[in-house]
Amino acid sequence: MSNLLIGEKPLMVIPALAVKIGLNEALVLQQIHYWVKSSTHLIEGRKWIYNTYKAWQLQFPFWSESTIKRTIHSLEDQGLIITGNWNYSKMDKTKWYTIDYERVEALEDRNDELTNPQDDLSIFSESEGEDDTSLAETIPDHPSESKSEQKIPTVEIINYLNENTNSSYKPSTHTTQEKIRARFREGFTLEDFKKVIDLKATEWLNHPQMSKYLRPETLFGNKFESYLNQKSSNKIYREEDFNLDD
Fold first, then answer.
1. Taking the alpha carbons of 113, 79, 103, 154 in that order, is the dihedral positive or negative?
2. Exposed/middle/buried for 228, CB within 10 Å: 0-12, 13-18, 19+?
3. How far apart are CA 2 and CA 67, in angstroms?
4. Is 57 among the domain residues?
5. Any residues with CB less than 8 A from the CB of 200 and at least 6 apart, and which?
6. Within a domain: residue 186?
7. 3-state DSSP call for residue 35?
8. Which domain holds residue 210?
9. Final residue of a domain: which of 125, 159, 191?
């Protein structure tokens, strides 16, 4: 019998969930759910688990650590998982994870309900695939999004960023699209994106250290609202004043 057929504990994914949030994200979310269910770490009314990226790679050996990190960041941006640091030592940066099950349930609307999720189940062996991009390219990029999300002006936003920062970012990049979607889900508008780009370009473009942060993952990340509402200041910032990397 071939070793490539299921003879070990498989990874599972519901295709309808993969269509909504991405295949990589659906696989990781399902795996986190598996471990959270049996967790004994109850903190602030939620069950939590903890893991390093290297340890996650043992469960997803067909992905690189960077792919796993991007996938987890995407789940954070979508609000589907909550992360924290509940380690005894604050020097220990091992991430803790739990799931926002209310946000997951909100993915199901009345017109697109999973009536029989077990009939819509795919299984992936942990030994399948070696290319860390192959699974990500299997599912189209959210083809069944709501009409409002399909109208998100990603191309216009990235073109505006490129024009104002002398950059050449691509609007087709998965991480960029996810961060823009996440901000639109929170109620921000095209004008908000342009305002943030204008503010930070004025502040950082000619700064030798900060200019490198004029990038989608920084501008459109979790600090987006802070950037949008920042007050004008004559203070000269140093790179060490910020923690901008995801």
1. negative
2. middle
3. 28
4. yes
5. 213, 214, 219, 227
6. yes
7. helix
8. 147-240
9. 125
Co-location of 36 and 102 in the same domain? yes
In this structure, the answer to whether residues 70 and 154 fall within a common structural domain is no
114 shares a domain with 33: yes
Between CA 84 and CA 107 the distance in angstroms is: 23
Please give the average per-residue pLDDT across 71-77, as a whole number.
Answer: 93
Residue 2, in any domain of the structure: no
49 and 85 belong to one structural domain: yes
Q: Which of 162, 141, 161 is nearest to 150 (CA)?
A: 141
Q: Distances in Å between the alpha carbon of 60 and those of 98, 125, 217?
A: 18, 10, 24
Which pair of tokens denotes residue 126?
């942990």
d(Cα 183, Cα 224) in Å, to the nearest integer?
A: 8
Core vs surface per residue 151-166: b (16+ CB within 10 A) or e: ebebeebbebbeebbe
19-36: average pLDDT: 93
For residue 169, the Cα-to-chain-centroid distance in whole angstroms is 18
Residue type (1 letter), 64: S
Per the domain annotation, does 134 fall within a domain? no
pLDDT in tens, 48-67: 999 999 999 999 999 999 99
Residue 185's Cα: distance from chain center in Å? 13
Place of tokens 């192959």: 134
Q: Which CATH number covers residue 98?
A: 1.10.10.10
Residue 142 has pLDDT above 50, yes or no: no
- For residues 63 and 76, what is the distance between their CA atoms, to the nearest angstrom? 19
Sequence-distant (≥ 6) Cβ neighbours of residue 242 within 8 angstroms:
210, 213
Structure tokens at 177: 């699209």
Contacts of 94 (CB under 8 A, 6+ apart): 50, 51, 52, 85, 87
How many domains would you assign to the chain? Answer: 2
Record the tokens describing residue 117, joined without a space. Answer: 């999720």
